[in-house]
TrEMBL record:
<protein>
    <recommendedName>
        <fullName>3-deoxy-D-manno-octulosonic acid transferase</fullName>
        <ecNumber>2.4.99.12</ecNumber>
    </recommendedName>
</protein>
<keyword id="KW-1003">Cell membrane</keyword>
<comment type="similarity">
    <text>Belongs to the glycosyltransferase group 1 family.</text>
</comment>
<feature type="domain" description="3-deoxy-D-manno-octulosonic-acid transferase N-terminal">
    <location>
        <begin position="39"/>
        <end position="211"/>
    </location>
</feature>
<comment type="function">
    <text>Involved in lipopolysaccharide (LPS) biosynthesis. Catalyzes the transfer of 3-deoxy-D-manno-octulosonate (Kdo) residue(s) from CMP-Kdo to lipid IV(A), the tetraacyldisaccharide-1,4'-bisphosphate precursor of lipid A.</text>
</comment>
<dbReference type="GO" id="GO:0009244">
    <property type="term" value="P:lipopolysaccharide core region biosynthetic process"/>
</dbReference>
<keyword id="KW-0448">Lipopolysaccharide biosynthesis</keyword>
<dbReference type="InterPro" id="IPR007507">
    <property type="entry name" value="Glycos_transf_N"/>
</dbReference>
<keyword id="KW-0472">Membrane</keyword>
<comment type="pathway">
    <text>Bacterial outer membrane biogenesis; LPS core biosynthesis.</text>
</comment>
<feature type="site" description="Transition state stabilizer">
    <location>
        <position position="133"/>
    </location>
</feature>
<keyword id="KW-0808">Transferase</keyword>
<dbReference type="GO" id="GO:0043842">
    <property type="term" value="F:Kdo transferase activity"/>
</dbReference>
<dbReference type="InterPro" id="IPR039901">
    <property type="entry name" value="Kdotransferase"/>
</dbReference>
<dbReference type="GO" id="GO:0005886">
    <property type="term" value="C:plasma membrane"/>
</dbReference>
<dbReference type="Pfam" id="PF04413">
    <property type="entry name" value="Glycos_transf_N"/>
</dbReference>
<dbReference type="GO" id="GO:0009245">
    <property type="term" value="P:lipid A biosynthetic process"/>
</dbReference>
């Protein structure tokens, strides 16, 4: 093993006592679950089920929503199996709890400490491990390898920025990547970058996000919001990050006279920012209705602040126009397909590195439009509100793009099935 791994292992051992302090700090800002804190130290929340156990690890909400259909297909194919789904965020745990399955167990992933990792793997003894997208944790992977758990990196992606950073540690990165029995890259750009970093077992399998079903919603909630909004012109700024809300507010102020009754909806990527956003937007002389407080949309409401978790399926069905957040600030962008799948006309800023190939395809197929500045946002919202034919063209092209790129789920099933069948035959 590379020297860097031993250094990492030693450092994570030494800072073990500090993890309690880190946990408390994260809990204060709503990023840890105090009731299940033991799971973050590798202690199990329940007994290991008997039989075949498929371990799937995701980072947060987006990856969890993406991988749930694959998990269900695996459980259909292997009726004797159970799935252990791990993640690291409170929001993802809520998604898992809101979408229960009798054969899926959710646990918080342990912090990447050698002792926590050992405790976790020793208890659960998974038969296979599927890490999703870019989840690479050296101690957890090392302990799994020590216990002969075959590992896969599925729907793997490598942005240009990540590639530049990883190139600084070529020996260590090559060692980590080749701990995976197979890497299934979601696009050709990621595949090439992984190969350049030294990955030996890698294929391009497509992006699981194209196979994901539409986000769920509550019909009663949609009906209630439609009744409150009536015929008002509306648009949505989805999964926004800091500073983007100001651009949305300025766009609203610029257009409210031209489009009487305009309602702008903001769904922040991190709902815990709701309190500070209310203050910020109120200081801009805007009237706010806050979803987390069950505040009603009234005739004079300028901004509906959807500072809640799990409502994107509802909001995309409510609005025909959506700005994809994390693109007007240098965050790399959020997943545009969630909106596209629900017949929404999409536009986005220049920061799209997290989903670069996806946004490139959208541009090539005229399935979404790019903007650069806040003034561009005003012009684009104005155009989309004014031109129903233009809205329809973008949303229709987006649906065609999704249909054209499906198939990653079957590719992934084909790749991992032989390993699971081998486990069963023993």
């Amino acid at each position: 093993m590379p020297l860097m791994f031993y250094i990492y292992r030693a450092v994570t051992w030494l800072i073990g006592p500090l993890t309690s302090i880190l946990f408390r700090l994260r809990k204060k800002i709503g990023r840890e679950d105090g009731f299940r804190k033991f799971e973050r130290r590798g202690f199990a929340g329940m007994a290991r089920p008997k039989g075949l156990l498929i371990w799937v690890h995701v980072a947060s909400v987006g990856e969890m929503v993406t991988v749930l259909p694959l998990i269900r297909k695996l459980l259909e194919k292997f009726p004797e199996a159970q799935a252990l789904l791990t993640s690291g965020t409170v929001t993802s745990a809520k998604i898992a709890n809101d979408n229960p399955h009798e054969r899926i167990i959710h646990q918080y992933v342990p912090m990447d400490h050698p002792g926590f990792a050992k405790r976790f793997v020793k208890h659960w003894r998974p038969d296979i491990g599927l890490f999703v997208e870019s989840e690479i944790w050296p101690n957890l992977m090392h302990r799994a390898e020590q216990n002969n758990v075959p590992l896969f990196l599925i729907n793997a992606r490598m942005s240009q920025n990540s590639f530049k950073n990883w190139k600084r540690f070529p020996i260590s990165v090559r060692h980590l990547l080749n701990q995976f029995n197979l890497i299934l890259a979601q696009d050709s750009h990621s595949c090439v970058r992984y190969e350049m970093l030294g990955a030996k077992r890698i294929i391009t399998a497509g992006n699981l996000k194209y196979d994901t079903p539409p986000l769920p919603y509550k019909a009663t909630e949609l009906q209630k919001l439609n009744q409150a909004i009536g015929n008002r012109p509306i648009w949505l700024a989805a999964s926004t990050h800091e500073t983007e809300e100001v651009s949305v507010a300025e766009t609203h102020k610029n257009l409210k006279d031209k489009h009487p009754g305009l309602l702008s909806i903001i769904a922040p990527r991190h709902p815990q920012r709701g309190e500070s956003l209310v203050k910020q937007l109120t200081e801009m002389n805007l009237t706010i209705a806050r979803r987390s407080e069950n505040q009603t949309i009234k005739a004079d409401t300028d901004i509906y602040l959807a500072d809640t978790i799990g409502d994107m399926g509802l909001l995309y069905r409510l609005c025909e126009i959506a700005f994809i957040g994390g693109t007007l600030t240098p965050r790399g962008g959020q997943n545009p397909l969630e909106a596209a799948r629900l017949n929404t006309a999409i536009f986005y800023g220049p920061s799209t590195e997290n989903f670069s190939e996806m946004f490139t395809l959208m541009k090539d197929e005229d399935a979404g439009r790019a903007i650069t500045t806040q003034n561009d946002m005003t012009d684009m919202v104005d155009l989309l509100l004014s031109d129903a034919t233009f809205r329809k063209k973008l949303s229709t092209n987006a649906l065609k793009l999704i249909d054209k790129n499906k198939g990653a789920t079957e590719e992934t099933l084909t790749a991992v099935t032989p390993f699971l069948e081998k486990k069963i035959s023993r």
